[in-house]
Every structure is written in C-alpha cells, then in structure tokens.
Specification:
Elements lengths: L6 H11 L1 H19 L8 H12 L5 E5 L2 E9 L1 H9 L18 H7 L9 E4 L13 H12 L4 H26 L4 H9 L3 H5 L5 H21 L6 H17 L19 H26 L8 H7 L3 H8 L7 H9 L4 H8 L1 E2 L4 E2 L2 H16 E3 L2 H11 L2 H25 L19 H8 L5 E3 L1 H29 L3
Parallel strand pairs: 6-7
Antiparallel strand pairs: 1-2, 2-3, 4-5
Helix pairs in contact: 1-21, 2-7, 2-8, 2-21, 3-6, 4-5, 6-7, 7-10, 8-17, 8-20, 8-21, 10-11, 10-20, 11-12, 17-20, 17-21, 19-20
Length: 488
C-alpha cells in the first residue's frame, strides 16, 4: 500500500530527481552566504592567493630579494592591498600567528576598507612565492577580473569579493559539467550530495581551489563513464584526460597520483603498447610542470616568513634527514594517522571554516561522514543501479586503482607537509589540513561499487537531500556565531 504523497515528500522527490538543479541552487545560496559571512582574508592562504592573482593580472613573474635573512620571491604591488588586509585583520593572541582565536569581526571594517583607494603608484613588496609550486596560469580567471576592476580603479576589497564570486561560479560550472556527463542514475545524486559537503562550498571561492577541485571531479567522471560503458581509451579521450590532469598538476603536483586511474581503462592496442600510451598520458603533465618550473625558476619560494619562524620548519634540513633513509618518514606518518593529534585533520574534511578556528560540532561532522559512507557504499533497488554495480564488479581492478591512488595521494600530501612545514626530525606531521584530502571523497564515491548495501529509494532520497542541507545550514550558523556573535 502506497503512502499518500505529502508536500514534504514531493519536495524530496523533486530534489532527488533533479540532482543538478539541487546542486546549483544549494551551491549558489550557501556559497554566496559563505562569501559574505567569512570576513576578508580569513579563508586560509587567501591573502597570498590574492596577491598572487594580482601579480598575474599585471603579467609579472616576480623577482627575489632578501627579507629577514631569507631569500623570498615576489613583486611590487599596490600598498593598498596590505592596508586593506590590516583594516580587516582579526587580531590574534600571542603565539598564534595564523589563528585569530575567536576575535569578533565588524561590518564597519569592510565599509571602512571601501574608502581605501587602489592607488597603483604606491607599491610594496609582496612575498607571492609563499604559495608553493602554484604556477601563474591557474590564477588566470581571478587575474582577469582583478585586471578589469583595476582598470576601473575599484578598491581592493571589491576585487577580493569579486574573486571569491568568480571562484564559486567556476566551481559550480565545472561540477555541473561533471554531473551532466554522468548518466542520470542514483550515482549522480550521490556525487551531487557529496559535492555539497560544507568544505567543498567553503573552498569554492579560494583562488586555485575551485579550478583544481572542479577539474579533478570532471577527470574522475570521465574515467568512471569509460569504465561503466566499457569504452576504450581513444586518442581524443587520452588528450582530454591529459589536459585535465595537466591543469591539476599545474595547480598542485601531488595530483599526479590521479593519473594512476588511467591504468584502469582499456585500449585497443596490445598490453605493452597500452601501458606505454597510458604512461605517456601520466608523464606528460609532470614533465611539462617540471619544464615550466625550470624555465621560469618559479618554484614558489620559501613559505611565509612568520610561518617558518613559528613552526621552526627547515625544508633543506628535513630533506637531508629523509634522503639517507626515507623510512624515517614512516613513524611520523603513522603517528599522525593513528594518534589523537590528527583528529583535527579528519574533522576539517567535513567542516572547518575561517582560519581553522571555526569547526563544526562533532555531531555534525559525524553526519557528514555518514552522508559520505552512504554515497559510497549504499545503493537502491533499481535495475539501472544494479547494472552500474555489475559493470564495476566486472572491473574490480578499478576499485584497486582507486585505493592505490588514494594511498599515494595521502602519502604525497603528508610527505609534502612533513618537508615544508614540519620541524626537522619531528615525530608527527604538522600543517596537514583536511581540505587537502577533499578530492578523495568524489573519487571513492565514483569508483567504489554502491551495491554492498541497499535501502528503500524513499529513504535514500531523503538522506541524500536532507543531510547536505542540514550541514550547510548549521555551517552558516556556526560561521555567523563565530565571527559576529563572538563565541569562544
């Protein structure tokens, strides 16, 4: 006997039947709320990404100079950027250079910064090389909007919010393209729901992250469709996937790990030729990135001077510690994964806003992981989903490649942070943030067969539509309380 359809059930049914509309509307509403509510430069690394974007808008590559006995790389940019940063800065407690410790923000600070003229004639040196290994092309979208606004002599604060909005639109566009490429099954709803986790929306406005994450999702969807439909890796598809991988590697070299997924696809050539073709598809982005770095000497430069001083990191000493015996990394890696010190990393995968001092309550973190687990492992009793599950079961190697990719990616992230932000010989890895691991969520959602557990379609639709909304509503409240009500 069917239950009568109530208005709430109709809403849930509509949301579940239109995952793309659900994603777009929700992303726009809460993305815009995050853009407005999070104070200027309170998103991690936003100041450095913004100055880097401005540098690219002026077609500058930067030059080196010594500051406090450290050789840094950067450019002379308008001093009004620094004045705007100081005007909107949240004062921190002594000994915590990057975390403002629940200082309250006032809208008067934003309105006051509107009165700071751009004045490109008065410049100051900015350490734009503090963004490690990010090459200029990945900043092009933000650089274009900055250039347009600079020609209009707009204040820096207007440029900042404009780059946030551009980032959000880039993220939504790439994610929608990925969702449209997917076949219209429950898998599309699962991906849309995962991409609505609070940290995806929070990072959607941060410089390179929208382009990087959106391109990664698109890359994963293309390969997933090839596996489901048992398509071969043609020359055109290889070029497309190589270009997407190139964008990812240009933003963050550790993303080369996702190239391993190419080996899950099939080719018309023999096994040896197919292996060579796939290897070239992976090697090309990495070689081009190395070539770019060698020609421009744009290696990103040292990290923030203050960050080095506060964390006592020394990359050269750390490399010297690891080169004789790479297994020296094993202990801190395991300690960080398994000891309680790493709990903050797992929390911040789901929600940790501002400069890492605005986490969601643990109850809602648990809801976020519950949503992810359902998206990865749970299916519904539909013939279409069963067909997809059988296709994946027939290609169990794809799951193994996904797990191998995840392992290499995780090790790469932890190793990079151990070298660049951890004091020499430290027994835990410092500087790792959960947002670095976000790409693993859509990877597992797409590559792990969801036929392990089944549930009724109505229950599945309710969970996959309501949990993202609950998490985003709570996240908006938490951000508002943190910055404007001042809770400890």
């Amino acid at each position: 006997m069917k239950l009568p359809v109530r208005p709430f059930a109709r809403i849930v049914r509509w949301l579940a039947s239109s995952p793309i509309k659900f994603f777009v509307v929700t992303s726009l509403v809460f993305g815009f709320a995050f853009i407005i509510l999070v104070p200027p430069f309170q998103i991690p690394d936003e100041f450095t990404h913004f100055t880097r974007s401005y540098e690219v808008s002026e077609l500058k590559t930067g030059h080196g100079q010594y500051q406090k006995k450290l050789y840094v790389k950067g450019s002379e940019l308008p001093k009004s950027i620094l004045l705007t940063y100081n005007k909107t800065w949240l004062h921190h407690k002594q000994g915590t250079p990057d975390v403002p410790q629940a200082q309250k923000y006032s809208w008067n600070q934003t309105s006051a910064s509107l009165n700071i003229p751009l004045n490109k004639s008065i410049v100051s040196f900015y350490n734009t090389g503090a963004v490690p290994a990010y090459v200029p092309p990945v900043y092009v979208p933000q650089a274009i909007i900055i250039k347009v606004l600079s020609l209009m002599n707009a204040p820096v604060i207007v440029m900042l919010y404009a780059t946030r909005l551009v980032g959000l639109l880039i993220w939504i566009s790439l994610a929608v393209l990925a969702l449209r490429v997917m076949p219209p099954t429950k898998r599309r709803l699962a991906l849309a729901s995962v991409l609505l986790l609070p940290m995806f929306i929070a990072q959607a406005s941060v410089s390179t992250d929208p382009l990087l994450t959106g391109t990664t999702v698109l890359y994963l969807v293309f390969i997933t469709n090839m596996l489901i439909n048992k398509e071969v890796l043609t020359k055109k598809k290889l070029i497309l996937l190589t270009v997407l991988l190139l964008i990812m590697v240009m933003a963050k070299p550790v993303y080369i790990a996702f190239g391993i997924l190419l080996f899950a696809t099939r080719t018309r050539q023999s096994a040896l030729k197919g292996f060579i073709i796939k290897t070239l598809g992976i090697a090309t982005p990495f070689i081009l990135y190395c070539l770019w770095s060698a020609l421009t000497k744009d290696h990103g430069g040292p990290l923030y001077i203050d960050a080095i001083a506060s964390s006592h990191a020394d990359p050269s000493m750390q490399v010297g510690y690891l080169v004789p015996n790479i297994f020296n990394f094993f202990e801190p890696f395991v300690n960080t994964l398994l000891l309680g010190w790493g709990d903050g990393i797992y929390v911040s995968v789901i929600g940790d806003f501002g400069k890492l001092d605005t986490p969601l309550p643990l109850f809602f973190i648990a809801l976020g992981y519950t949503l992810t687990l359902i998206a990865v492992f749970v299916g519904v009793d539909e013939k279409e989903d069963e067909r997809d599950a059988r296709a994946f079961c027939a290609r169990k190697s794809s799951i193994l490649f996904a797990l191998l990719t995840s392992l290499i990616f995780i090790v790469g992230v932890y190793l990079a942070m151990y070298v660049y932000s951890t004091p020499p010989h430290e027994r835990v890895v410092t500087g790792v943030q959960g947002r670095y691991l976000l790409p693993l969520l859509p990877l597992l959602t797409l590559f792990v067969a969801k036929s392990w557990v089944t549930m009724r379609e109505t229950a599945y639709d309710l969970i996959m539509t309501s949990l993202p909304l609950i998490l985003l509503v709570v996240s908006t409240i938490v951000i508002f309380l943190r910055f404007y009500v001042l809770y400890p």
